[in-house]
TrEMBL record:
InterPro entries: NADAR (IPR012816), YbiA-like_sf (IPR037238)
CDD domains associated with the record: NADAR (cd15457)
SUPFAM superfamilies: YbiA-like (SSF143990)
Chain intervals with Polar residues compositional bias: 1-13, 71-83
Region feature (Disordered): 1-106
Protein name according to UniProt: NADAR domain-containing protein
Classification via Gene3D superfamilies: YbiA-like (1.10.357.40)
Domain NADAR: start-end pairs: 123-264
Length: 278
């Protein structure tokens, strides 16, 4: 991955993801990244039958427990002491090239804590801890010179690349992650062949995750500091990507754990120092 990125509006190409490496290297310490509390907003999931994607608002989620791993940012990339709510619905579809919806490396406030990482980490709603693990979290990523507002925008766009770039562009320009899903849903017949049958959905979810956590230094560090914790996409109604209230496959959480292993190996080799922040 290059150290600098030339951002254009050109269409990108799909490629295979690297197979995850299962390799435990060390027991990490704990990172806390001071964050803004996010306002409630829809999160994204995809149904197991592969026909639709659904949006949910978790109205019953409790208050965030203290001193958790929570990297976050303001929408314009600035930092302040005020707790301005962050809502993914407020993020524009595209930002200027020198701006970021996520973290602009080197400016994040990180402190070491002594607490032990929990064995199980659940994430779902924007106002809960660990929402930064979600594809709907407001962190831009760049793929093949094209900037996407969130990982969800990128994942949904890849369903139509390279064969239908005009649809992919509509998805990328959607105002929110939820709108990106809805736009993609309107073009189900145009999704590339083998997306689910051949496991391209799983290949590309890992690809998008690797981009996200490679391009945002603080996110990468925070993910590595989760250690061996089980990562659970706690969407109660999704039995494919989520845990489905205990009945689901949690494929999103499994993919995230495999990406964590890849990043851990890269970190051991010292290659992570060249990661870019969009």
């Amino acid at each position: 991955m290059a150290g600098s990125t030339n951002v254009t509006n050109a269409s990108d190409q799909t490629s295979s993801s690297s197979s995850p490496t299962s390799f435990w290297l060390r027991k990490p310490g704990i990172l806390k990244i001071r964050s803004q509390r996010r306002a409630s907003a829809p999160s994204i999931e995809e149904d197991p039958a592969g026909q639709h994607a659904e949006e949910h608002i978790d109205d019953d989620a409790g208050a965030a427990p203290p001193r958790q791993l929570r990297p976050a940012s303001t929408l314009n990339g600035s930092r302040s002491g005020s707790a301005t709510p962050l809502d993914p619905r407020d993020s524009p579809a595209l930002q200027a090239q020198d701006q970021s919806l996520g973290l602009d490396g080197g400016k994040d406030e990180i402190e070491e804590l002594d607490e032990v990482v929990p064995d199980r980490i659940e994430f779902f709603a924007p106002h809960q801890p660990y929402f930064w693990l979600s594809n709907a979290a407001p962190y831009e990523i760049v793929l093949d010179g094209v900037r996407y507002p969130t990982a969800e925008h990128c994942f949904q766009s890849l369903k139509f690349l390279p064969h239908r770039p005009e649809i992919a562009r509509k998805v990328r320009k959607a105002s929110t992650p939820v709108e990106a899903v809805r736009t993609a849903r309107k073009h189900t017949a145009d999704v590339q062949r083998g997306w689910r049958r051949d496991g391209l959905n799983l290949v590309n979810i890992r690809r998008v995750m690797l981009l996200k956590f490679s391009q945002h230094t603080a996110l990468r560090k925070a993910l590595l500091q989760t250690g061996n914790a089980q990562l659970v996409n706690a969407v109660p109604t999704d039995v494919f990507w989520g845990n489905g209230g205990g009945r689901g496959r949690n494929e999103f959480g499994k993919a995230l754990a495999s990406v964590r292993e890849v990043l851990r190996t890269i970190d051991l080799l010292g290659a992570g120092s060249g990661a870019i922040t969009v």
